[in-house]
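Journal club prep — side note

Before the paper discussion, L.F. wants everyone to see what a predicted structure for a comparable chain looks like in token form. Sequence:
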Amino acid sequence: MSPIDPFPRDQATTGPADALKMLVARAGAEGPPLIVVKEGLVGEPAFGLMAAAGPRTSSRGSVHAFVVEAVREGYLCHNETSRVLESPDADLALLAGDLFYAIGISALAELGDDESIRLLSDLIVVSAELRSVGRRDDAEAFWVARTLALACGADAEHWALSESLMSAGDRSARDLDAWSDRTAATHGITRHIDEVRHLIHFTQSP
């Protein structure tokens, strides 16, 4: 299986709740030395479930959940702690993060979903820039908003707030959070945004 192959074909019929199990199976297919998969549970796919719950994505929810969890794992490998890998050193974690990003984006490419590719590619770049200047909370606010944009659609306000986030800081992050709250409420997925925010708070580094 090549580094840019999407999720395993024999698991393509599973649901959004299985996104992390699918990711573990996909990562395990790479094998050592880059990938050594943890034993046991790796958590709930809260971002993936939210990504699959909106009107843009619900018809192919399993794929979108898998894609978002793969990209999220890339972000965690680069910036925090992997849910999937067994204690990688810093260099291997960076390489594995790049692999997870590629897995996610390539699965979207197979769908021909150019808008989602744009949304997630921008998410990868902007969240990395925010983390590079120590703005973890803003990066997480952007993750929530961009996952909702994937699920429900990105309007002009979302794009404007996203573009101003790097320069405007706290104010834009608060406005982006407010956009996320309104979008989730409009589409009846407030429970999902609450679960994602709880997960972010629970796993926040000291």
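L.F.'s comment for the group: Residues 9-202 form a domain with the Farnesyl Diphosphate Synthase fold (CATH 1.10.600). Keep this in mind when we get to the figures.
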